[in-house]
Amino acid sequence: MENNKTEKGGTNRRKFLKLGLMSSVTAVAGASLISNLAIQDEEVTDSGEKMRLLTPDGKIVEVDASNINKYPEALITPEESRKGIPNRKFVMVIDLAKCKNARKCVEGCQKAHDLDYNEEFMKVQLIQDNPEASPYWLPKPCFHCDEPPCVTVCPTGATFKREDNIVLIDNDRCIGCKFCVTSCPYSARQFNWGHKDKFDDTSQPYSPETSVPAAEGTVMKCDFCPDMLRQGKLPHCAQSCPMGVIYFGDKNEDIVTNGEETVRFSQLIKDRGGYRHLEHLGTKPNVYYLPAVNRQFPLERGFNVDEDIIERYKDVPYVQDLKKQGKI
Amino acid sequence: MLNLEIMKSNLLKYTFITSFIITLLFSTNGVAQELDASNYKIRFNLKTVKQSDNSRLLEVIFFGQNKKDRKDKVPVFDAEIKFYNDDTLLGTSKTSNEGIAQITVPENQTYIKDKDGYITFKAVFEGSDGLDEEDDDVSIKDLHLELNLEEIDSIKTVIVKAFTLDSLGVKIPVEEADIIISVEAMLSKMKLEEGTIEDGEFEFEFPTDIPGDANGDLIVYSIIEDHDDFGNVIQKKSENWGNFQNQIVKEENKLWSEAAPIWMYIVLTILLVGVWANYVYTARYLFKIKKEGKQLEVNTEKTN
Amino acid sequence: MNLENRKRELAKEFSPLLEKTTKTSKIWIGFLIAVILVGVYAFFLQLFKGHIVTGMRDNVVWGIYIINFIFFVCLSYSGAFISGILHFFKTPWKNSISRIVEIITVLSLIIGPIFILLCIGRLDRLHYLFLYPRIQSPITWDIIAIMTDLIGCFIYLFLTFIPDFAILRDNSENAPKWRQKVYKFLAIGYQDTPEQREKLHKVTRTMSAMVIALAIVAYSVLAWIFSLTLQPGWNSSIFAPYFIVAGLYSGVGVIIIAMYLIRKYYNLEHYIRKVHFIGAGIILLVISLLFGYFTFSEYFSRWFSHKIQDANLLNTLFTRYFWMFIFANYIGVLVPIVILFFKKFRTIKSITFAAVIAVVGLWFNKYLIIVPTLETPYLPIQDTRPEFIHYTATWVEWALSFAGVAAFILFFILIMKLVPIIPMSGIIDNERDQKKNKKVYKKIVTE
């Protein structure tokens, strides 16, 4: 089931299989080149991620992204990642009026963090607050709370709150007690239950800022992509959203952007009635929501996804109604 | 931003690797045959940006766009682009994996102008067996943008002056041009005002409630975008106009910080010391009992 | 030397318990070892394949392991609590059962924490708990509490064993050499002189008070692991006392069951008498009333105020978990109350039956606290994978759970082979006291 989905999910999967021979050749070639030139001591391995390019000879080719993308990035070690980016207080604002469950944020995030089909740091939930209420799509990342219960209960300090508001997990430190999973009221955390081949990927050294590679028996979650922020780029989810639903920025600057427009954070919250989810729990999240009023898309647009995804929402009264009417 | 530049330059450093890979891909084109470029319309666009240090950025975006599915865009990678001013070669650059080739021409470059003062830039891809030759050109006037941040009667005012120089070096104010005033943020620029330069000048009252960075510094941009005569022109200036007020306090001795609230240490210590003192007390008594036992043994042996 | 003779007599009386191994007990030991071996296999399976072999998934991240953990640790704390009270208040009929209680205490405190280790994804990093401790975490408190309590219970247990070791040392001429050596070492030169006896009684008394205090702290810390989170079914201020009462409930229950089995299979009808069962039964009655009261208060306040998440939780409990809820919180409380309340129902067998119901009911009570809560988080679970929505324990988890119970029984049998289950020194002490004031203890001759 899961495998099927993965193949469907990755558009390039079929082509990748066809090009399997080729990419293995490039990998070998890359390795030998490196030993010749001694540029880098990292080995070039097949990351499985493909990138389509047009060559100057007019051929469209698919190459392994690790061959092209391999900028020698500044590695942020687990120790350094505890500090945070100085003088920043990151916030996210999610505009529910614009979300149509396109799931691009989920996919962008999964691609960047090397996650499988069912592993989602960003989840899109369908929330209907009461049977009369109009349901809405709720993209739900980790809320990076100011008073995070998950950090409080961690016995080893594997998960920590940084000065720039980000809550990260150091999976080198995590003992897998799962206490943080039970103490998070937003179900933002996931556990790596069994071994997966991708955990052995050594093509890039582990950093809590990228959450890659994940490790068996440890916890993982949305990390607000600090590696992107250090490059002055938006987190992957915000970048991938075609609707500009996700705004991100620095609360100290009071400016957030969704990649297209840049606005004052305080103004946006004031004008649009921004709120935080489950405020009464007192965790002080750093993810704000703009209520789903004056929507840009009818809710039904969100049902233009896999059967399997629609099936997730079967308990929502609205969906049950739709099913009764035979609309889904 | 800086990182981005470094990356790009790094990518260029590895041209050997990338070109090797490309050759390799070419040699295995049997596998990649179905991916022919004939369904794609080739786009080749040149743009010029006069940057704040008065250098000039020339940028080509080179990609194929699917004729049926217009959202499907494939960047042309590693294509050599030549940049010209009339017939003078300014430089060459290869397209990145995003299909972008850039060169930066320093401020002191003298350009060939036509009689109206227009500079013509041209970018050329010379073509290959598979791709046709592509070129694009733009003609612009060299616009000088002066950005001044002044407090006039304690009102923070942004003053922009725009002019061109004629052949004698006389300033000729720009008659009309749309301008954008922005302020820099960590991830993007925030537009504050859109206006029009009239008679070479534009004034704007800067808002008082923008925090800026931790020192209250902020960077103001004046931008002319895609102007028919001037292309893109950007000017920026930094000033301590922010009202940054957030106290940056380090959270210490909280439940979620590294060190716990003090009372927790105290209570835990009291509890543990209390319990362990009791254990030690018990152990001492056990030793006493043992000692007495030995004494008794010795005594009985003696009496025996 | 009347006293010495009596000691010799007692040592002789109990020596078959220690030295002889009957055929049935051999079969039993073999069976228990087999169960444990299956558990060991399951453990290695989980170690090498990861927690994927369990029924736990992202929503229900803690399953029956943590329930067993609570169950055993609570059992231990209640053992310590009861034993401490028996010693501290010099309860008249304590002698026959105090050792049973002490052994239960220590064994369950060794087995309980093994279950929490099974919940940990990276056992290879266990030492990080000491390398990078964070004292804000209730898990850290729990580790400190368990370790301190374990040491305390060992010391306490040892104190109560010393006089018996001394008697065995002096009266085991026929026993194998190694046994004699062990007894000699463990008796630490105790000669039962009045000074030594007084010293020993003094420290035992202080330690018994300490053990009571430790048990209360450790219970509370265990309850706080759950009640300090924001989870709707856990975030309750009565959890700490509730866990104490629940722990005592299962503790007394297990003691009664152990008394029954030991009495039956070791022919100790002379020492473990009906009066003990009735005494324990009345305590069980009191605690079952308390436990019922706490359970009612806990669910009643959730039902009455019905915050949305609480209402969802109760809805789950009364639909999906209906029969389990009825069994754990109605039958598990009411049946023992009815049996123990009426005098004519109080027979050894019926009291033991009530205890079994209480213990099993309590296990399910814990199941209902842990699993349904995790299945109804604040934000609805929207998933299509059944194992991520509902928890069902796999055979690995059951195998390890039964291995825990088997290990508990096996160790119990083995300890009974080392020291008599009825403290001989206690019998002598009682006889001595009786001589002093015969009238007072006339009715309670059994000790």
What separation lies between the terminal Cα atoms of chain C?
21 Å
- The CATH class of the domain at 37-141 in chain B is Mainly Beta
Low-pLDDT parts of chain B are 1-13, 23-34
Indicate the overall shape of chain B: elongated
Order of helices and strands of chain C: HHHHHHHHHHHHHHHH
Helical content of chain C (DSSP H or I, runs of 4+): over 70%
Q: Please give the alpha-carbon distance between the first and last residues of chain B.
A: 96 Å
- CATH level 3 topology of the domain at 37-141 in chain B: Immunoglobulin-like
Major beta-sheet overview of chain B:
8 strands, mixed
Number of helices of chain B: 3
Average pLDDT, all residues of chain C: 89
**What summary fits the major beta sheet of chain C?**
none
Instruction: Name the average pLDDT of chain B.
Output: 84
| Assembly form of the protein | heterotrimer
Poorly predicted regions of chain C are: 440-447
The amount of beta strand of chain C, in percent, is under 5%
Number of strands of chain B: 16
From the coordinates shown, what is the CATH architecture of the domain at 37-141 in chain B?
A: Sandwich
Total DSSP helices of chain C: 16
Large-scale geometry of chain C: globular
Can you give the helix content of chain B as a percent range? 10-25%
Itemize the secondary structure elements and their pairings:
The complex is a heterotrimer of chains A (328), B (304) and C (447).
Chain A: H1 2-9, H2 13-18, H3 20-37, E1 50-54, E2 60-64, H4 65-68, E3 90-95, H5 104-112, E4 123-127, E5 136-140, H6 149-153, E6 159-161, E7 167-169, H7 179-183, E8 190-191, E9 219-220, H8 226-230, H9 236-240, E10 246-250, E11 255-257, E12 262-264, H10 265-272, E13 287-290, H11 307-312, H12 317-324
Parallel strand pairs in A: 3-13
Antiparallel strand pairs in A: 1-2, 3-10, 4-5, 6-7, 8-9, 10-11, 11-12
Chain B: H1 2-13, H2 15-27, E1 40-50, E2 56-66, E3 73-75, E4 80-85, E5 88-94, E6 100-105, E7 118-125, E8 134-141, E9 143-152, E10 155-165, E11 171-173, E12 176-184, E13 189-198, E14 201-205, E15 218-227, E16 231-239, H3 262-303
Chain C: H1 2-19, H2 23-49, H3 64-88, H4 95-118, H5 128-131, H6 138-170, H7 177-186, H8 194-227, H9 239-265, H10 274-305, H11 308-319, H12 322-341, H13 348-375, H14 386-389, H15 395-418, H16 424-436
Helix pairs in contact in C: 2-15, 3-4, 3-8, 3-9, 3-13, 4-6, 4-9, 4-15, 6-7, 6-8, 8-9, 9-10, 9-13, 10-12, 10-13, 11-12, 12-13
Protein name (chain A): Phenylacetyl-CoA:acceptor oxidoreductase PadC subunit
Keywords (chain A): 4Fe-4S, Electron transport, Iron, Iron-sulfur, Metal-binding, Repeat, Transport
Organism (chain A): Lutibacter flavus
